[in-house]
Amino acid sequence: xxxxxRKPTPAEPWRDPDQTPYVRLEQVTKKFGDFVAVDDVSxxxxxGEFFALLGGSGCGKSTLLRMLAGFERPTEGRIxxxxxxxxxxxxxxxxxxMMFQSYALxxxxxxxxxxxxxxxxxxxxxxQIRERVAEALELVQLTPFARRRPHQLSGGQRQRVxxxxxxxxxxxxxxxxxxxxxxxxxxxxxxxxxxxxxxxQVGITFVVVTHDQSEAMTMACRVxxxxxxxxxxxxxxxxxxxxxxxxFTAEFIGQVNLFEGRIVEDEPDYVVIRSEEAGCDIxxxxxxxxxxxxQVWVAVRPEKMLIAKGTPAEPLGQGRNQVQGVVREIAYLxxxxxxxxxxASGKRVRATLPNLTRLTELPITWDDEVFLTWRPNAAVVLxx
Length: 384
Known about the structure:
By secondary structure, the chain is of the alpha+beta class. The chain has helices at residues 61-69, 111-121, 126-139, 155-167, 185-202, 213-219, 237-242, 247-252; strands at residues 23-32, 35-45, 50-54, 76-81, 84-85, 96-99, 173-177, 205-210, 222-227, 230-235, 257-267, 270-275, 280-284, 295-300, 306-309, 322-332, 336-343, 348-354, 369-373, 379-382.
């Protein structure tokens, strides 16, 4: 799974204490009767950032987006956009535009008329409308399709019309609610890069809601992982993938193997965890201070496991970070293969092996006995 495809950010304002957040949520809570949809969320988003709210159904991400848009009011807390308190400002007066999952294009209007609709509502002069629409069409590469109706476009083209209709009004903040959900897999992946490139060109702050982890990690500068109305982890895609702070995040973002165990050695530069599930001691090349004897979980991503027949690929010594099992399932996915290996404890773990050459037969097949090993810096210790 890719960590991120965005260009490195030359300045990361969230790391600079002197930077002022462009969007700020302060202890925002939203209740529907007795149900708490968003629970005491505080969050800062910076100017020009592509930010993602990621989580499963019912986690509160769409409710949070609707509060930013003004369609819902917080039960408690406050929201600022560009230094202005939005508490009493209705949706139509906010410097915000929202792109809905359904796109909501007018079927009787052409592409250009759909894009111009909001500008006509704002009573802008005709020459200014034509100029802005032409710029928006060029931005989303739809100039040749300006006279077509929505039913004459592909799904990806309709998505770009909806995006242009939002951008043409030049909002300070653009909210995207599952914008790619209606597209097929290949088109969705292509459009992720298009959206990222467009956002970099226009420099508008984007906030996207999605349940698709690869979508969030491909497009966003930072990701907020949500669960049960709260943000459980906030960071760059690489930080969240490589250093999850909980079992929930580790399991939600990509595939992961979790080994339950107990810390038997805890030194400043390493920790040893005894795991009956793994059937071995697990050595990790950093300390976790103050947790000796505690129950923990060790997270190892499948692509960080080395798999070999016969002898361990990279034995660490003393049997640490080395498990043995039998291949039960194989998923051949072209560029790599996923192996499901059953250990002596009955636990099943996953390992990923890249297919570096064209093969008529897999080098490791069903019912093979294999060794799995991983390096000391490949695992993360989780306490809950």
